[in-house]
């Protein structure tokens, strides 16, 4: 078993939250953890 890939969403006004959402949409079955504000990520996902 591989260790999970860990990503932080970084600066809320930057591109980090969008990169996190792109990683979450991948279909490669990699294990990953995103550290960030869930409300911000939900807002970005729905815009």
Structure in a nutshell:
It contains 2 helices and 2 strands, in the order βαβα.
Characterize the overall form.
globular
Number of domains: 1
| Count of alpha/pi helices | 2
Quaternary state reads: single chain
How helical, in percent, are the residues? Answer: 25-40%
Provide the low-confidence segments as ranges: none
Number of E-type strands = 2
Would you tell me the structural class of the helices and strands?
Answer: alpha+beta
Largest sheet: 2 strands, parallel
- Give, in order, the helices and strands: EHEH
Query: How much strand content do the residues show?
Result: 15-25%
Strand order of the largest sheet: 1-2
Q: What does the average pLDDT come to?
A: 89
Radius of gyration: 11 Å
Spatial gap, N to C terminus:
35 Å
What features would you describe in this structure?
- Helix 1 packs across helix 2.
- With 47 residues, this protein is α+β, with helices and mostly antiparallel strands.
- The model has no long low-confidence stretch (mean pLDDT 89).
- It has one domain (5-45).
- 6% of the residues are buried.
- The chain has two helices and two strands, in the order E-H-E-H.
- 36% of the residues lie in helices and 17% in strands.
- Strands 1-2 form a two-stranded parallel ribbon.
């Amino acid at each position: 078993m591989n260790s999970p890939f860990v990503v932080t969403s970084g600066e809320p006004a930057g591109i980090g939250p969008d990169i996190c959402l792109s990683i979450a949409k991948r279909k490669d079955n990699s294990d990953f953890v995103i550290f960030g504000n869930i409300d911000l990520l939900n807002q970005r996902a729905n815009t």
